[in-house]
Write a structure and sequence with these properties.
348 residues, alpha/beta, Spore Coat Polysaccharide Biosynthesis Protein SpsA, Chain A, nine-stranded mixed β-sheet, two-stranded antiparallel ribbon, globular
Length: 348
Amino acid sequence: MDHLAIVILNYNGYSFLERFLPSVLAHAEGFPVYVADNASTDQSVSLLRDRFPAVRLLQLSRNHGYAGGYNAALRQIPAQYYVLLNSDVEVTPGWIRPVLALMEADSRIAACQPKIRAYDHRTHFEYAGAAGGYIDWLGYAFCRGRLFDTLEEDRGQYDDDRPVFWATGACLFVRAGVFHEAGGFDASFFAHMEEIDWCWRVQRLGYQIWTCGRSVVYHVGGGTLPKTNPQKTYLNYRNSLLMLYKNLPPERLFGTLLLRLVLDGISSAVFLRAGQWRDIGAILRAHFAFYGRLGALRPVRNQLLRQAGAVTHLPVYTRSIVWDYFVNGCKTFCQLAWQNKEPQQQNQ
């Protein structure tokens, strides 16, 4: 069994593999590098065989998406720790050791991420993860270093190591035993927000999620689905509702979903004003897909409620990030209500 395995999930990512695998191999610090190919139709597999023989190739039978693809791949990889790494990430010298040392020092840490900077704007944080993620009480995700589309410059303001609510799947260090104990990712998500759902579940089992400010990588972002793609809109809205339904406590479920229905309607009006009709359709499809699955989701939710341990208070932002950003003008994480304090705990 390897101590740590670096695992890249690939789907038609020939250009990213060609560009970024050399840096991964150069800075792997002796740990094995796997590429799990999600039945690519480009020349990714030929590239790996011809030019990167040191990479351990796993070929999956079909495109399982991010969630199902990693589930299938990690079942085949014996290791104590996994690094789930997007194919469009450039790593840096020494990126592994600080995160690994942090996790080895505390067995309660189930997952951890480095700082994620933007590959094309290298002084600033990247959208997908930045310096560690949180959600507000309505389930809207945001990060230290990124609120909605506002990306902060990295001036060292988030160089600490600390617990967060979620860590990004773009570069996710995971304790293998906990990953499998929690049942892996929810494969029905296919892609987007599955890591937030997983982080929520493992915290309720008594583990913690951290961010490590002493490690940094650079992420292109949107390599498989561009940010403006309606399919990404659909997955984000649908998966957010799935996550809330699965994980919210009974006393908060109905009210939260009702408010999300209202706010998602408002966001549709924003898309309408911008003429983005396909995104409006994606939001409608997301809601109908969610409502259509409620019957199948109910036993899943009940099982999770039975499995949850004694930990019910998690680092959730108790205000509305939507209100604080768009109405109160809070454009950076440090301007939020918990400035200079640890995030408040809320029953989740």
